[in-house]
Amino acid sequence: MLNKELLEILVCPVGKSELRLEGDALICTSCGAKYRIEDDIPIMLVDEAELPEGVSSPEELNCGQQETPPPAF
Ligand SMILES: [Zn+2]
User: pLDDT for 3-55, tens place per residue?
Assistant: First the structure.
């Protein structure tokens, strides 16, 4: 079982959002990326994460960004 204190300090590497434990994986509460846990060690790598539906690359993850970026001129 994953250490609860460890879980509390872990954040999504994309946008530093909170994670929730689901089964044997950690899921970002913001972007939905799924990080698996192997031998009690969470694999916190975007390249290894399972991407949510509709997202085909890690660059498309919208994590921790509540505000829309200002338009570029
Ligand atoms: Zn995220």
Answer: 788 888 999 999 999 999 999 999 999 999 999 999 989 999 999 999 999 99
Give me ligand 1 centre to Cα 41, in Å: 18
Domain holding 38, by residue range, is 4-52
**Longest Cα separation, the chain:** 50
> Model-level pTM greater than 0.85?
no
CATH of the domain at 32: 2.20.25.10
Total count of residues recorded for the chain:
73
- What's the CA-to-centroid distance between 72 and ligand 1, angstroms? 24
